Amino acid sequence: MKLAIFDLDDTLIDFASTREVAYGCLSAHLDGERIDSAAFVSACRTIDRPVFALFERGTITRAEYRLRRFSEPLAAIGAPPNPALVVHLNRLFMECVNDRPMLYGDALPVLARLRAEGVRTAILTNGPSDGQRRKLEATGLEAAVDLVAIGEETGFSKPLPRAYHAIVEHFAFDPADALMVGDSPELDYDGARLAGLQALLLDRDARHRGGTRQSIGSLADVVRTVN
C-alpha cells in the first residue's frame, strides 16, 4: 500500500458526538423560544440524512441544504415559519460542529505513523467545503495529511469513481496501490472497491460485524495492514 485515503466525519472526527453537543446548543435556544426541542431534534435526525444526500448528488445547493435541514424539522413539529430562527440555528450549529469538532484519539497518531512509514495520506470528504475546511483547521488534520479532497471543490463526490481516482492520480499511483478507509459501507467501501482501490470499513461500534466487507475496529488496524 502506497496511499491511505481517509473519510473525515465519523472516521477521523467523531461527528456523531459533536453533532449531539450541537443539538444540545440548539435545544437550549429553542426552549427559550417555547418550541419543543426534543421533538425538533428527533425530526432533525430523521430529515438531515436524506436532505444531505441531495446535496451530495448535486441536486440542491449548500445553502438549500442548510435551509432545509432545520426548516423542515421545524415544519414537521408544527412550528410556525421563521426564517430568522433558521438562520440563527444554522449559525449556532456550525459554530459547534465546525469550530469545536471532537477528534478521535487514534486519528493523529495513526496519520503520523503512516507518514513515518512512507505511506502517503489523504482525506476525501463529501461535506460542505466551508465547514470541512473549518474542521480541518480546528483539529490540525490538514497539516497531518498530504492532500485534502472535498467533493464540493473538486466536483466529484463519493461514490463516483472519479472522486477516488483524482486522488490516486495526484500521486501518480495505480488504484490498486491505494486504500480507502471510512465508516460508510456504500461511500467508503463499496465505492472505493468499484473504483479499483483496496478498502477497509471502519466499524468502531461493531454494527456491521459478520458482513462480507473487510472491516476494522479502530484506525490502529490500518497501520497493521502496512506492516
Write the SSE topology.
Blueprint: E1 3-6, H1 15-32, H2 37-56, H3 62-76, H4 83-99, H5 107-116, E2 120-125, H6 129-139, H7 141-144, E3 147-150, H8 151-154, H9 161-170, E4 178-182, H10 185-194, E5 198-202, E6 215-216, H11 220-226
Parallel strand pairs: 1-2, 1-4, 2-3, 4-5, 5-6
Helix pairs in contact: 1-2, 1-4, 2-3, 3-4, 4-6
Report on this model:
The protein has 227 residues and is an alpha/beta fold. It folds into two domains: 3-13 and 103-226, 3-Layer(aba) Sandwich (Rossmann fold), CATH 3.40.50; 15-99, DNA polymerase, domain 1, CATH 1.10.150.240. It has eleven helices and six strands. It has helices spanning 15-32, 37-56, 62-76, 83-99, 107-116, 129-139, 141-144, 151-154, 161-170, 185-194, 220-226; strands spanning 3-6, 120-125, 147-150, 178-182, 198-202, 215-216. The protein starts with a strand and ends with a helix.
